[in-house]
Amino acid sequence: MPGSQVGIGLSGAGGRYFSLSALYLFIYYGFGAFSPLITQYYNSISLTGTQIGLISAVAPVVSIIAQPMWGLFCDRFQIRKTVLILTLVVSGLVGLFFIGTSAFAFVFLLYLILSFFQSAIIPVSDSLALGYAKKNGLQFGDIRLWGAVGFALAALVTGLLVEKLGPSVLFYSYCFALLIAVLLVLRVPDESQETPRFRVGMLTGMRDLLRMPRYLLFLLASFCVLGAVNANNIWFSLFYQEIGGTVAGVGLAFLLFAGSEAPFMKLAGMIVRRWGLELTLLLAAVFGAARWLWYSSAPSTTLVIAMFFVQGISVGFYLATSAQFVRENTPASLQVTALAIFFSVGGGLGTMLCNLAAGWIKDSYSTLGIYLFFGIITVIGIIPLVMIKFGPWKQRSFDEDAEVTQ
């Protein structure tokens, strides 16, 4: 009966949306258990600021090579779900090896391995979600916001557990969340079969992407903006304690900060429809720069918590719209590659620079100096965003994608 078929179709679509949302919830729950509190583990094994900076720079350095490699591999062979399952399983299991480890060299090696596999998780999952959102007329932010919810919950719950049971709890939480995510990937739709297949050489594909002015400028902006955002996840714990906070307070702060991203990711869709992607991204960067510069003035913990929603505007808006900007300004057949390069530049090169500089600044000055640096580099990142909005380069249409697939 026609009515029955419609009901089944709606049920199937609803189930796929639920699976994608839950996938983001658990992936970012794992990240929320790991990133904000890993510094507590470093402190427990007596690492110096310089050593923390070096370890924190491993992931960005690895991602510079690994993320484009994973992306090109997925685009050529159209095996996004297989790659995502593999990297989730290996990342989760490697996380457990940190437990009981105290030697700097061994921690460095483990982080190197973890970073290689973890670097594929976000660009591949974003590609799956973007494909589903485009096919079903949804905003990517409606799905991505569940990642913010997961990150916020993990930061609070794991922060409380770490204070009571010790840093090893964060590794168990990280592994558990990623393994749950594996089960959800099996139910997630993959629209890659409907995407033009990537038929050019790998280096040619990367060269073509880097010849697109709007995409290249966006990479430069994200190098600065996301570099500071990602590095903040590592250094905020020390900053918050320096201005008088506690470890449990760090968990509460991340709950409010990351939790505020979810409603603003939802709001981002409305802002984009009214004012466009470029102005939404520019607004996010301006709020981000103002936030870091304010942090460098040593505000009270009460004010930092009270102004939690600034993260929603800055980080929530940027993360909800950045992947959409990449999708709309690059060929569909190179989507995973374009996303991977974007993450390797923002989450890789930019984060590497910010973490290395932050480690040196901590040892030479203080954590307040770290946030002054974050503010300055974010201001620099605003410049290419202004050029994208007001420059001569117009958005191209990549619907046909003929020049890449022929």
Automatic annotation (TrEMBL):
GO terms for molecular function: cytidine transmembrane transporter activity; uridine transmembrane transporter activity. The keyword 4Fe-4S does not apply. The chain crosses the membrane at residues 21-42, 54-73, 85-110, 116-133, 145-163, 169-189, 215-237, 243-264, 276-294, 300-320, 332-358, 370-388. It is a multi-pass membrane protein. It holds the Pfam family MFS_1_like. PROSITE patterns: MFS (PS50850). It is found in: Cell membrane. Gene3D superfamilies: MFS general substrate transporter like domains (1.20.1250.20). Keywords: Cell membrane, Membrane, Transmembrane, Transmembrane helix, Transport. One of its GO terms (cellular component) is plasma membrane. PANTHER family: BLL5896 PROTEIN, NUCLEOSIDE PERMEASE NUPG-RELATED. This is MFS metabolite transporter. It comes from Brevibacillus parabrevis.
